[in-house]
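ARCHIVE CARD
CATEGORY: sequence design from structure
SOURCE FIELD: tokenized fold
FIELD CONTENT:
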């Protein structure tokens, strides 16, 4: 199974945040006296109040944690470095980062294992010389011929008016 499919399955999930991490996020939120529009503050408040995180947001947090060190290394001023350190702490810091990494790792392993269990080799063709018929399923509704003609006529009229 491809990583894309695994990622889609992860995104559909919802994960309860453990109490010790919720307490940690609550302490961060309540003790922070700075700019509340800084990266991570609003997210932490939402996670704290919800008590859970969607797989999609879990991946977003993971992306932040993966890139924060790079941002810090590239920061050219002490002010920018302070901002990045603060954003890291407001996003839950090392405790939340480790939990996010563990959840994603555990769930990817589970999805991989289940995918391998569900795998069933295809049956050999009963008639290998026969070409299989393609299965085509279109999500695009078929338009009635008159509707298409009307649309084309409108486009032609607009084109003639602009020329």
């Amino acid at each position: 199974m491809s990583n894309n499919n695994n990622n889609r399955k992860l995104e559909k999930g919802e994960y309860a945040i453990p109490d010790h991490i919720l307490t940690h996020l609550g302490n961060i939120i309540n003790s922070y006296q700075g700019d509340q529009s800084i990266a991570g503050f609003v997210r932490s408040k939402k996670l704290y109040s919800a008590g859970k995180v969607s797989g999609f947001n879990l991946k977003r947090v993971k992306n932040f944690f993966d890139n924060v060190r790079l941002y810090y290394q590239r920061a050219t001023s002490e002010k920018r470095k302070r901002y990045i350190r603060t954003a890291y702490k407001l996003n839950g810091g090392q405790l939340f980062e480790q939990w996010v990494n563990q959840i994603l790792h555990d769930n990817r392993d589970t999805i991989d294992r289940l995918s391998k269990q569900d795998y069933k080799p295809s049956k050999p063709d009963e008639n290998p010389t026969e070409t299989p018929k393609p299965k085509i399923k279109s999500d695009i509704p078929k338009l009635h011929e008159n509707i298409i003609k009307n649309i084309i006529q409108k486009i032609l009229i607009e084109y003639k008016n602009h020329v």
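CARD ANNOTATION: Residues 3-118 form one domain. Residues 100 and 106 are 10 Å apart (CA to CA).
SHELF: design records, drawer C
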